[in-house]
Each structure stands twice: as structure tokens, then as C-alpha cells.
Amino acid sequence: MTIWLYLMAYLGVVNFLTYAVWAMDKTYATHGARRVSERRLLGLCLLGGWPSALIGTYRLRHKSSKPSFLIKMYSLIVLQLSGLGGLIWYATAAV
């Protein structure tokens, strides 16, 4: 049971951090300040922050008009969900 608590805490922190970085980068963009790199934003998605990244992209209207970034972000999401689906399938098939 404790592994699930750790997992939920991890995902909560990563998603909070991801949304905060998305909002911070949006603020930097509107003020002409130095930006957060796309590599770092995608890294946060890869760490599990993609739900907040999706919310931040459309709620804050940040990076929503950059097709190259969106393709990379959605590819990461599909890759993670496919991996998770494969893991669940393997775990249930082995039982």
C-alpha cells in the first residue's frame, strides 16, 4: 500500500512543478525575459508531468501554437501511455 502513496506523492509534486514551470515560462515570454528551454519542459513531461503540461498548454495558451513542440509533447504522452498499457497487460496476463 505504501508504494501507491509514494507514487501519488511523486506524481503530485511533479505535476505541481510542471504547471508552475509552464506558468513561469509563460510569464517570462510575455515580459521578454530568458525562457525555460523546450528540452526542460519536455523533460518534465517525461518525468510524469504531462497531465499538467496539457492543462498548462491550453489553459495558459502557452506553446499551443508551436506544432513542432506539440508533436514532441504528444509523442511523449503516447509513448508513456503505451508503456503503461503494456505494463498493465503484461502484469494481468502473467497472473
UniProtKB/TrEMBL annotation:
Q: Where are the transmembrane segments?
A: 5-21, 41-61, 73-92
| Signal peptide extent | none
Q: Does the record carry Translocase as a key word?
A: no
**Database matches in Pfam families:** DUF1294 (PF06961)
**UniProt entry keywords in alphabetical sequence:** Membrane, Transmembrane, Transmembrane helix
This protein's name: DUF1294 domain-containing protein
Organism the protein comes from: Asticcacaulis machinosus
